[in-house]
Amino acid sequence: MKNLTRRTHRWGLAALLGATLALSACDPQAIKELEEGVSTEADVVQRFGQPERVWPEAGGAKTYEYNRQPAGLRNYMITIGADGKMSALRQVLTPENFARVQPGQGVEDVRRMLGKPAQQLPLPLKNQTVWTWKFLEPPSETKAFNVYFGPDMRVQRSEIGPDPDGPDMRGGG
Q1: Which positions make up the signal peptide (predicted)?
Q2: 54 phi and psi, to 5 degrees?
Q3: Torsion angle (degrees, nearest 10) of CA 92, 98, 104, 105
Q4: How close are the terminal C-alpha atoms of the chain, in Å?
């Protein structure tokens, strides 16, 4: 019975991974079909699906968080204005956003900038938690952006490192 449970769990993970990869493969087409100031909230949801999270913005706007982690290499934030039209579509796993992560920031601040991480790993001996986002460093190298949070869940430091899953030349996500 234990082997059956493990096998079922692996199949479930494989199906989830496959669905995530298929979804992220559709992103370039979905992005081409959306236009800032023209596309509606319904257009965004039709092409990207339901967001992982919705962040409230000033003046009645909201930002939809679309994560492609852990299988993908991009995360998107799509802002819908108070008028119901898309006002911004950003891929947020960029060096510019990584540079905005500063010591003292809380987990929600970092999540709002970068989206959900690929991995959250407690480091009990160091009394830290590290969040990792996988991203594509041009032209085709997969890297990891790691943020180390202290016991108060505030940023202590961040770094760019190698892909925790090893070299990958797929360039997807």
Answers
A1: 1-25
A2: -120, 125
A3: 0
A4: 36
> Which 8-state DSSP code applies to residue 91?
E
Q: Which CATH number fits domain 2-91: 3.30.1700.10, 1.10.8.870, 3.30.1450.10, 3.50.50.60?
A: 3.30.1450.10
- Shortest CA distance to 92 belongs to which of 114, 124, 120, 59? 114
Model confidence pLDDT, tens digit, residues 1-48? 444 343 333 334 333 334 344 445 588 999 999 999 999 999 999 999
Q: Is the CATH number 3.40.50.920 carried by domain 95-162?
A: no
Structure tokens of 66?
A: 């679309």
Both tokens assigned to 19: 């669905």
